[in-house]
Design brief:
alpha+beta; Chemotaxis protein chec; 2 domains; seven-stranded antiparallel sheet; 11 strands; 30% helix
């Protein structure tokens, strides 16, 4: 959860450039179990929540902004480059405030979706965003939550509270750990390039009867079914890998590779 919070905090400064102008710093709290109502920051002023859902599963997450945070976001989006001591917002947000906050918060919700996907591979989408005016703790789901406090407001700390399904997070992390391949030492792969491998160039194959085999004598010629210009099979570890043609090179019988098995064989003879 802490890694998700760190990813998310960096993304918010790209989404809301005024946070950079204000030199905003986040203080990331410790993950806790419960609902965001267990956070002391949530009790300060009107709050706004963005809900994230997994369309294909039961995973969920929420992003909740407390009153001082909403004030900071409203001021910054309207052009203020200074950190105030906390904009005063009435408990019930006005229609204009809700419209602007909805736009800002859903962008932040997208940032949280991206952070969750990067860390857990879970794909969540923004499903709803709303002001928390008559919310009760009984209507909320338990999960893991973590606070991100915006530095600079000692009396009324501006905070974002990230909350997520603990079961979905745990399952996703386990799957990521199981799926992650172990990376070997690259020096091993480099060393393998120097290993000697036996290649077998096969001129052809012939079947003889047992009687003929018994009567074979020195000087007898065995005629293979291959024509002189028929490509040879070159085997590596018993498997056909290349086609080649026989020739002589510096007085030694040799083969010249034509192509890999499966590639078209070049037409015409190759002379040595």
């Amino acid at each position: 959860m802490g890694k998700i919070a760190e990813q998310y905090s960096r993304a918010t400064k790209r989404t809301l450039p005024f946070l950079l102008r204000q030199r905003t710093q986040y203080r990331v709290g410790e993950p806790s179990i419960g609902t965001f109502f267990d956070s002391e920051s949530i009790q300060i002023g009107p709050c706004y929540m963005v809900e994230l859902e997994d369309p294909a599963g039961s995973a969920w997450a929420t992003l909740t902004l407390n009153g001082p945070c909403l004030g900071r976001l409203l001021e910054g989006s309207l052009g203020s480059s200074q950190i105030s001591e906390g904009a005063t917002l009435k408990q019930n947000l006005t229609l204009a405030q809700k419209v602007l906050i909805k736009k800002i918060s859903e962008k932040l919700g997208g940032d949280l979706c991206d952070a969750i996907r990067r860390e857990t591979q879970l794909v969540l989408e923004v499903s709803n965003s709303r002001a928390l005016e008559d919310e009760t703790e009984d209507s909320l789901r338990d999960g893991l939550f973590i606070e991100l406090c915006l530095e600079g407001e000692a009396e009324s700390p501006a905070a974002m509270i990230l909350s997520m399904s603990a079961e979905a997070l745990d399952n996703a992390v386990r799957q990521c750990e199981d799926a992650e391949p172990s990376r070997g030492d690259p020096r091993v792969a480099e060393a393998l390039l120097g290993v000697q491998v036996a290649l077998v160039a096969e001129l052809g194959r012939l079947e003889l009867g047992v009687g003929q085999l018994v009567n074979l004598k020195p000087g007898q010629v065995l005629r293979l079914p291959n024509l002189v210009d028929t490509p040879l099979s070159v085997r590596v570890g018993g498997l056909e890998k290349f086609c080649a043609t026989p020739l002589t090179s510096r007085g030694q019988l040799s083969v010249q590779v034509l192509n890999r098995i499966g590639a078209p064989v070049p037409k015409g003879n190759i002379s040595g």
